[in-house]
Amino acid sequence: MSKLGIFVNRQTLSSSEQLQALVKCRDVAESMGHTAEFIFPVDIKKIPKLDALFIRANTDPMNTTYVAARMAQMYGVPVIDDPSSIKICADKINMYMHLMKKKVSMPRTRFLKKKELDLHMAEELFEEMGTPLVLKEPSTSFSVRVEKVSTATELLKVSKRFFKLSDWIVLQEYIESRFDWRVGVLDGDLLYACRYIIPSETFKIQASVNGHIVYCDVESVPADQVPSKVIDMGKAAGNAIGKGLYGVDIKESNGKLYVIEVNDNPSLEGGEDAHYPDMFHKIISYLTTADIASHADYLSDQVYGPQGFEGDFGLGAVRAFVHADALLDSDVYSYKIDFSGR
């Protein structure tokens, strides 16, 4: 019997769906013979006494979830999400670089540096990548600070706003679709699969429209009805990040698949498990029986200077970022931040 901690905060309990999922997780753990308790930020000192920790609060390297993950790691407590996964997925540039390193298919992507983007460059980007384009601020989550732009002027306007928060931003070609595949991956294997039906009012799975939040519909899909290439791509994208729990968003267009995001701490309360009743059982079994200590090993940051990032994803030597071949599989990639212009 193991003692499982489920790390939550006030936001985690903000909806009945989230609360029901947490209670289900606890009940499954107890049915498996374990004890389970909810751990709030004020209870963080309890973590060293746990046998496993399951974080079910918004993860970010700048909040208490990362402290909880690192504390678990330091005391040898198996944890989902592990600190390196949190650091990678919280930074879209970091995350996309991992996908590039493993040659996972994704939309054509550019990393734009502060002070280098001007009208001429913006016009060139539209000529290269088509219209419209999608602009992302690297630390975004829940589709916030993800905007579609159709002109060079609009690109400059939105990027100016995003550059107030980051020295780098992400620009991608727009892949049109009415749904995203969401593939849940745990330890490199399929956990669940569903379709996120994109609301007609937007191109994102969640957006504010006329002052109201609109959400995607979730349609759980049995594994034997999911194209094998979708499952394979979800596994490949998850493995590019680590061996934890991930939600991989995939779009299909003209017969080709594109990974849009890899999310740590994915949603488990939207009905994703409708055709996967053993979802929580697998997660708890993984935490309490699998040898996952090696997955939580600390991966130190490596800061790279501009070396040129060529190929389909590159900006060329002048708009350089980092060369993919210089990156190691064990690195949590980072990049230099220049605060001099602030």
Question: How would you sum up this structure, described in words?
Answer:
The chain is of the alpha/beta class. Among the domains are: 109-174 and 316-335, ATP-grasp fold, A domain (Dna Ligase, domain 1); 179-277, D-amino Acid Aminotransferase, Chain A, domain 1 (2-Layer Sandwich). The protein has eight helices and 17 strands. The chain has helices at residues 16-31, 64-74, 83-89, 92-101, 119-129, 152-162, 228-241, 279-289; strands spanning 3-7, 35-39, 52-55, 79-80, 109-113, 133-136, 146-149, 168-173, 179-186, 189-197, 206-209, 212-215, 217-220, 245-253, 256-264, 301-304, 332-335. A five-stranded antiparallel sheet has the order 13-10-9-14-15. A four-stranded parallel sheet has the order 2-1-3-4, sandwiched between helices. Strands 5-8-6-7 form a four-stranded antiparallel sheet, with helices on one face. It is globular and about 65 Å long. It starts with a strand and ends in a 7-residue tail after the last strand. 41% of the residues are buried. Mean pLDDT is 82; it is low at 293-342.
